[in-house]
Amino acid sequence: MIKLVIKKEFLNALRDIRLQVFGVVLITLMIVAVFVGKQKQKQIQNERTKAQSKMYDKWLKQGDKHPHSAAHYGQFAFKPKPVLSFLDTGLDDYTGVSVFLEAHKQNEALFSRAQDSSGMTRFGEITVAYIFQILIPLLIIFLTFNVFSKEKEQGTLKLIYAQGLSMKQLFMGKLWANYTIVLFISLPVVLITYLLLSNDSSNFDGNVASKFLLFTVSYAIYFLVFTSICILISAFAKNSKLSLLMLLGLWITSCIIIPKATVNLADNLYATPSQFELKKTIEKKVENGIDGHNPSDTRLASLKKKVLDEYGVKTIDELPVNWGGIAMQAGEDYTDKVYDEEFSKVEAIFNKQNKFTEWIGFINPYLAIKNLSMAFAGTDFYHHVTFTKAAEDYRRSFVKKMNKDMELNHKPGTAYTDYNVGTEMWSSIESFNYDLPKTNEILKNQWKAILSLFIWLISLLLLSNYLPKKISIL
Fold this sequence. Notes:
Elements: H1 2-15, H2 17-60, H3 67-73, E1 75-78, E2 98-102, E3 105-106, H4 128-144, H5 149-154, H6 156-162, H7 167-199, H8 206-236, H9 240-269, H10 275-288, H11 296-311, H12 323-360, H13 365-377, H14 381-409, H15 423-427, H16 439-445, H17 447-466
Antiparallel strand pairs: 1-2, 2-3
Helix pairs in contact: 1-7, 2-4, 2-7, 3-14, 4-7, 4-8, 4-9, 7-8, 8-9, 8-13, 8-17, 9-12, 10-12, 12-14, 13-17
């Protein structure tokens, strides 16, 4: 019996002019978004790869100079554009694309798209994720708002019930029929995306394949959750008009109002310091000590005494190593400690904001799928943080090597300009390379969003099994 209901609902939906128009528009939008987005992603990645190579080549050809001068000369780290980022741009437009790496400073990622764009950037761009999150639910609403209420209004629900079809069978038939239609509309873009990815064999590995699979499965669950909610509301609404109003109100609340309100509330609950405040705090702690009682000159004097005692000499000129290299690295270590402390505080605030949003996902599946979507596409906050940390580790590594060379090879007592190194030293520093987090890392980081979706799914399936018995045929 359920199969007959599914067939009947499926055919009725296909004859509906609303589905025909809306479906064609959505499929067209999704296909355009995929092709344009993929081309853009590939172009951006090529540009960043070339820029990384060019900056490294510039590093290799900087000429002979003192190693610490080279540390100030610095390098650039460019954030790679994730292969799946064209499906969901996430935070990529706001987080910056490159970091300048130099001695004594931890610079932030700059040159985000939002910095160079108009206010229209805040509205985002048409991506598969945007269509899946916002427009597909709207399609589901127009498909399902009257699947039950129309039967009541036309009096056919009584006839169906009289023929021995239970309300549960009718409900499940309507649910799976409309869900199948949604999957049918979404399938072309999934297949096209897979073909585009598989043709790019150099970038389509097991890690990307698993992320794409999880991305697709997550949205399939989201569609089922939303379809279930819509049909339940239609089943218990008094009429089609009320059902449509309730569902549109649900869509506006869950997809527009709650996400915006959640972000604003999280920002108010866990306020971040301004860039100016953060910079001043770091400068103050570097100069006066983290606790305010260990100024830089005192630290330097203490280090000097320790080094002299260690080598058993009375003056710097008697040291078998270069004091400047030791002092430079000690300054780096202390500065790194200050930056780590202050940046960890800011990161903790951002993590609290994100966790607040993740918990809200338990009452709004839109936020859960949004977090999962960005995570699998590689465009969420976690991916940005892992990139900046990788860049910082690279910065510390090459600066430490420059200072160590100065310490061991710059003859004590000679002038700063009397010691230079060249290409051999520069080529000993490999070009910056960053690997995106693996799938298992993402799953571990996004467990709340995953749990939220599954709780929504299981709860609605249980309700779909129990509530249809209470549907009135009048």
